[in-house]
Write a structure and sequence with these properties.
alpha/beta, five-stranded parallel beta sheet, four-stranded parallel beta sheet, about 15% strand, binds N-carbamoyl-L-aspartate
Length: about 350
C-alpha cells in the first residue's frame, strides 16, 4: 500500500487506511522484537533506508521524540544529520524556516524531520520542500515532530497504536482527554485520528482557560462525533471512559508574561492512584514528560500504559519513515503549493 500523504504535517492528512496500515506495520515490528529479533537487525527494515540520509532538526526541546526518531532512523539503516537547539542554529540569527529548509534539501537529504516552537512552521517547511521538488524534481518527505501548540501527528499515530493494543479495538471507544487541551498539541492530533474510527465518543476535562480549541469542537459537531466537556478530572473519571489520556500544562506557552496564570492552572488536573479505585479497565495514557499531573503511584497499576506508549514510538516511527521514503508516486498537489509560495503575502505571512 502507498500512503496517501507525501508530507506528514497534520493528522488530518492521515486516512483510515493509512492509519490501519501503519499500525499493522508497527505491530509486526513489536511482534518480531517480542520474539527476540534485535530492533536494528529486522529483515525488511534494517536496510530499508540504506544509502539514505535523514535530517533530524529539533529546534524546540525534546527527548523522547528526538531519540525515538533517531533510533528508528538507525534501525532502518539510514545515515542521519542533526540540528538541535534553536539558539545554536541559524534560525536564531534570523533565518527563515523557508530558507533553512531549502538549504537542508540542497544538502542531499532524503527526508526531513522537524520540531519547532511556532505553530504553522511545519507547513512552511513542507511547502519549501515542494518548491524544491518543483525546481529540482527531487521529492524530500517532511515529517512534523511538533509545531508549537498546533500538532504532533507521529505522536498521535503511536497513541492510537497504543490504544488499539491496550483496548484490542479502536471502534466504539470512549476516550477522555484531560489537562491542557488548548496548548497540548498531542491532543489536537489524537482527536483527529481517533475521529476516523466509528462510534467514537470523547470527554474533555480542563479548566475553562485550557479548553480544546474551537476549531476542533466545531469539526466534531460537523462530523457528528459526540463529546462532553467537564472542568474536573473527577467528573471525567466518573463517566467511565475506556481511555484516560492525561497531559501536562504547557508552561512554555505561558512564558514570559503569564507565569502567574500557569502557577494558578498547573495543579488543576491531577491524577492520583486512589481516584482509580475500581477502574482497573481504564487505560491510563500520557504522552510524557509528566510534571505533577500524574502521580508516580499510578505507575504500579497494570492499566498504566504510558511507558508502553512511549516504547511504541520506535516501531511506529520506523513504520512511518520506511513507508514515507517508499513513496514512488507524487501527486500534482505540490504545484499548487508552489503557486501559493509565489504569492508575496503568503511569504510575508508565514516565514
Ligand atoms: C509531547 C510534546 O512534545 O508535545 N511530548 C512528546 O512528544 N512525547 C507532550 C508534552 O511535551 O507535554
Amino acid at each position: 500500500m502507498t500512503l496517501s500523504f507525501r508530507h506528514l504535517v497534520s493528522a488530518s492528512q492521515v486516512t483510515r487506511p493509512d492509519a490501519d496500515f501503519l499500525m499493522e506495520r508497527a505491530g509486526e515490528i513489536v511482534e518480531r522484537v517480542g520474539r527476540g529479533e534485535p530492533l536494528t537487525r529486522l529483515k525488511g527494515y534494517r536496510d530499508a533506508c540504506r544509502d539514505k540520509c535523514i535530517a533530524s532538526l529539533f529546534y524546540e526541546e525534546s527527548t523522547r521524540t528526538r531519540v525515538s526518531f533517531e533510533r528508528s532512523i538507525k534501525g532502518l539503516g539510514s545515515d542521519i544529520v542533526t540540528a538541535q537547539d534553536f539558539k545554536a542554529s541559524s534560525l536564531y540569527k534570523g533565518e527563515s524556516i523557508w530558507d533553512n529548509t531549502k538549504i537542508m534539501a540542497g544538502y542531499d537529504i532524503d527526508a526531513m524531520i522537524m520540531r519547532h516552537q511556532d505553530a504553522g512552521s511545519a507547513q512552511v517547511a513542507a511547502d519549501a520542500l515542494d518548491a524544491f521538488r518543483h525546481e529540482t524534481g527531487r521529492h524530500v518527505p517532511f515529517i512534523n515532530a511538533g509545531d508549537g501548540e498546533n500538532e504532533h501527528p507521529t505522536q498521535a499515530l503511536l497513541d492510537i497504536f497504543t490504544i488499539q493494543q491496550e483496548c484490542r479495538k479502536l471502534a466504539g471507544l470512549h476516550v477522555a482527554m484531560a489537562g491542557d487541551l488548548k496548548f497540548g498539541r498531542t491532543v489536537h492530533s489524537l482527536v483527529k485520528l481517533l475521529s476516523l474510527y466509528p462510534d467514537m465518543r470523547f470527554t474533555f476535562a480542563s479548566p475553562q482557560r485550557l479548553k480544546i480549541p474551537d476549531y476542533i469542537r466545531e469539526e466534531l459537531v460537523r462530523i457528528g462525533i459526540p463529546f462532553t466537556e467537564v472542568s474536573t478530572l473527577e467528573e471525567a473519571i466518573d463517566l467511565d471512559p475506556d481511555v484516560n489520556y492525561m497531559t501536562r500544562v504547557q508552561k512554555k506557552r505561558f512564558e514570559p508574561d503569564n507565569l502567574d496564570e500557569y502557577e494558578r492552572l498547573k495543579d488543576s488536573i491531577v491524577l492520583k492512584a486512589p481516584m482509580l479505585k475500581g477502574k482497573d479497565n481504564m487505560v491510563i495514557m500520557h504522552p510524557l514528560p509528566r510534571v505533577m499531573e500524574l502521580d508516580t503511584a499510578v505507575d504500579a497499576l497494570p492499566n498504566a500504559a504510558y511507558f508502553r506508549q512511549a516504547a511504541n514510538g520506535i516501531p511506529m516511527r520506523m513504520a512511518i519513515i520506511r513507508e514515507m521514503l517508499n513513496v514512488q508516486q507524487v501527486s500534482g498537489e505540490s504545484d499548487m503549493w508552489y503557486q501559493r509560495r509565489l504569492d508575496p503575502d503568503y511569504i510575508q505571512g508565514v516565514i
